[in-house]
Write a structure and sequence with these properties.
By secondary structure, the chain is an alpha+beta fold. It contains 4 helices and 8 strands. Helix 1 runs antiparallel to helix 2 and helix 3 runs antiparallel to helix 4.
C-alpha cells in the first residue's frame, strides 16, 4: 500500500515525523517546522559504509605506524571519525526501520503546501528546478513549497537556511584553524631542521584546506537548496 509523503504520527510515541513515501526520516515536526535530528544520519547506509572504511583505514595506520607518533595520531583520528559515522548511520537506520503510518497525516497548515498538494494559480503545479533539475522544488500552482526532492524522495526544508549558513561558517573556520595547526607544525619543524615534521605539517595544512574548501563549497550550495525562491517558476528578475 502506497502512503503519500507527509507528516505522520509514529505508532507508540508522541512523535510526528516526515514520511517520504517509503520510510520515516530522522526529521521531527516541532512548532510547524522540521527539526533534523543531529545525532542521526539522514543517509544511514552511506554513513555506515563510510564509518567502516574510515575505521579500517585507522586500524591500518596502527599496523604500519612503526612507533611513528604522527601515524598513530592519524590512525586514532580516522578510527574516531569512523566510529562516529557508523553510530550516526545505525541510529538513522533505526528510524528508517520504523513501521509505516497506520493513521492519517498530521495536518498542520503551517507545513502547507505539501508535495503534490495543488492550489489554484496561473502556473501549473509541478516539480520545477529550484535550484536545479537534479533538486526540484514543488510548486503548488500558486506558491512555492518548502519541499524539494533529494535522492529521489521529497524532504522538508522550512527553517533550515539559517542553520545551514551557521554550519557552513563553522566548518570553514574549523578547517582554517586546523590548517593553521599544520602550518605551525611546519614552521616548528623548520626551526628544528626536522624535515619529517615539516612534511607532516605541510601535508596536514594542504589536506585540511582542500577538504575544508570542498565541504564549504558543498554546504554553501545547500544554502541555495534551502532558500525559498521569490519568483514563480519560469520568471526571472
Amino acid at each position: 500500500m502506497n502512503i503519500a509523503p507527509g507528516w505522520y504520527g509514529v505508532s507508540g510515541t508522541s512523535d510526528v515525523r516526515w514520511w517520504d513515501g517509503a520510510k520515516f526520516r530522522p526529521i521531527l515536526l516541532r512548532d510547524g517546522l522540521p527539526h533534523y535530528e543531529k545525532f542521526r544520519s539522514i543517509s544511514p547506509v552511506p554513513s555506515i559504509v563510510l564509518g567502516v572504511l574510515m575505521a579500517l583505514l585507522g586500524i591500518g595506520r596502527f599496523a604500519i605506524s612503526d612507533d611513528d607518533p604522527y601515524a598513530f595520531a592519524l590512525g586514532i583520528a580516522w578510527v574516531l571519525i569512523g566510529v562516529m559515522s557508523l553510530v550516526l548511520g545505525l541510529l538513522g537506520l533505526v528510524i528508517e526501520r520504523l513501521p509505516a503510518p497506520i493513521h492519517g497525516p498530521y495536518l498542520d497548515p503551517r507545513t502547507f503546501p505539501w508535495p503534490e498538494q495543488v492550489e489554484y494559480g496561473p502556473i501549473p503545479p509541478g516539480w520545477y528546478p529550484a535550484p536545479s533539475k537534479r533538486i526540484p522544488r514543488w510548486w503548488s500552482g500558486a506558491r512555492w513549497s518548502e519541499y524539494v526532492v533529494l535522492r529521489r524522495f521529497p524532504l522538508p526544508m522550512a527553517g533550515q537556511r539559517k542553520r545551514q549558513i551557521a554550519t557552513t561558517w563553522t566548518v570553514a573556520i574549523a578547517f582554517i584553524l586546523l590548517a593553521g595547526v599544520g602550518v605551525a607544525l611546519a614552521f616548528y619543524g623548520a626551526r628544528l631542521h626536522d624535515t619529517s615534521t615539516m612534511v607532516v605539517g605541510v601535508t596536514l595544512a594542504v589536506s585540511f584546506l582542500l577538504l575544508g574548501g570542498i565541504l564549504t563549497a558543498y554546504m554553501a550550495y545547500l544554502v541555495r537548496v534551502y532558500t525559498l525562491p521569490v519568483v514563480p517558476p519560469g520568471v526571472t528578475r
